[in-house]
Here is the input.
Amino acid sequence: MSGWRTLLPNAWYIAAREYRGRIATRSFLLGTILLAAIAFAATESPLLIDYLQGTSQTSVAVYTSLNDLPADAHQVLDSQLNPRTDSSNAHQEFVISWFEGSGENESDVQHDLDEGQFAALLAIDRNAQTGDLTFTLRTDMPSDGRQTGMIQSAVNYLALDDRLARAGVSISAIQTPPSWSVVPLKPSATDEPAKVTSVSGQITSSILSTVLIVLMLMAIITYGTWVAMSVGEEKGSRVMELMLNAATPTQMLAGKVVGNGAAGLTQYGATILAALAGLWAQGPIRQIVFGNGVSSTPPAGLSPAVFAAFIVLFLLGFILYALLYAALGSLVSRQEDIQSATSPLMMLIMSGYFISIFGLSAINETWVVLLSYVPFFTPYLMLARVAMGHVEWWEFSLAIGIMLATIGVALFLAARIYSAGVLLYGQRVGLRQVLKAARVSR
Amino acid sequence: MSLIIDSMSKCFGDVRALDDISLEVRPGEVFGFLGANGAGKTTAMRVVLDILRPDSGTVTWDGRPNTQLPRETWGYLPEERGLYAKMKVLDQLVFFAKLHGVKPRRAEAEARGWLERFRIPEYADRRAEQLSKGNQQKIQFIAAIIHDPQVLLMDEPFTGLDPVNVAMLKEAFLEMRDRGKTLVFSTHQMEQVEELCESIAILDRGKVVVCGSVRDVRRSTGRQVVRVAVEGDSEMPWLGTLDGVLVTRRGQDYVEAEVAHSHNAEAVLQAALDRGCRVRHFEITDPSLEQIFIERVGQMDTSERTLAPKAVPA
Here is the structure.
């Protein structure tokens, strides 16, 4: 065992070779372009949705011969059909044309409807006995469609407005919210960091956690497989035999993990840059498409702390799993067998993934907290805990410490399995055989 | 300052790959490792290189155990050839040189220099997969010696090469020896051993059966070999009737026979002349390494080197 003393510079040379070799492959280039394109497109998706909605406008003609509609009838109908959550959003899904009073002829409007100038004709009348408004919608749109539904609920609101007006009450007076305040019982509660407590906030952060966990999972599997492939390639081409005299197994392992990890980070970085560029480009693109700019908002809940935790956990998780990938990769004779040889790892990773997805809904339960200290699950569960709730500094540090210790043990074991495994060719090598060989190898 | 292997054993499961091997390679000599396939040559080299750890025994070079020697002491040309297929030749050589502690700046100069010596400088920027097998082997040889190792171990260096490349590699070989390097190589081609080696060891199933200088090994049998060719009589049936003479091989126009040590080999020449033969060729020599090899390795079990009898159809 040559130990840390002699790890450099050979591990560095190997890492540099691995990195250059990896990023020179066509699959790396295509994969990076694809991921960056997906990231860019994903950040532009709100624009796309707006654009698709923006291009579809529904013209509705409203005909009525009544002259006793509530004074704010136009405004009520318009605000119901074109709700403005965002004041700068100028897009109107419904264009409403009013044909009111005795001057208008319903058959003229009906004619325009038949000509296709309007998608629908809403006729408003009043029931002579109850005095309530009655509505008739003539249209080719499906009667249970979204637009029909929106018109119906707008109309319900108008009818309510009408009834209230006849009772002498203004709807805006009803809608004015009453005074409301919350007095905390314990003053110390305000010292706690702001936790996400609102329902919508919790949903956002659970979506964010899921996304981060999936990103972590994909990265560990993809880049871990790179490490195993690289070992299998060296073994398959027999260049391993030259390497064995040139470097120690520990140097080779460290170099491979660092080199492939750096290549993975490069791909990740390109993807993140594309996403950031996408966020930045939202404004200018919106300017071009819609003629008005809007400031883009970063994903809700992605605080610097969560992002930092993601980076740290990703690096440590990758190193831990990559060492195991390298050890298992050293046991196969041909690259084609890598997939089956690394399937136990895949199961371990997937079980961690499922546990954390289930754990999201029970993030403060004891079993989730305990499992978040198990090094193979820490990358997912600790990340979920950081993103979803409150984690004390010592808790995070403890989990990181456990992971670092496990990585040390994994490096030692993987180097032994590796040095024994790379010399074994032929039949699929059983674990017992490897452990036996590892005992006597350097 | 020799390479000393002392009572080294190594088992793989039930197989004793190396069984109490002891031998010494003197510095600056060319040492041949002979043995059938599976005799333990590759395992012995890997143990010397500290790629494998022996179950027992030690390896020392210049008095220092191999576990404490820097890796750049050794140059190793493995039996299984392999390079990074997608990597450029020059990059690979620089990579291996740097791994062996050559300064990055010097590594490229060394690599280019060796490519020149092998008359393939134009391959520096090609990828390894674009090279012929012979040229790939040259690259591997360069990769093994680029850091100027003290001891060079080569596992079957000549297999799979055409005669032109063999000649070139031999020259590189002898140059390394002239630079004062110690060379150990394994083979089962006896002519090359007789041509290149000063000392040999024959391995059989993990044991050293013969060890020593080539001359001593050939003399050690205590027999002499005579090779006779006479005009007009290629069979020479009388040869076998002489006392103490055993015909071992009949060539196209000569006959080889072994003469027991107690008898005088010149008596064969006398007998030929007595019969009125016109002798074209007469030679007294030691048994060839090939004969010794077959004799020593074959002794143990002849069934391994002969075909099983043909099955008789019922």
About this structure: The first strand of chain B starts at residue 3 and ends at 12. The CA atoms of residues 72 and 99 of chain B lie 9 Å apart. Chain B has a mean pLDDT of 87.
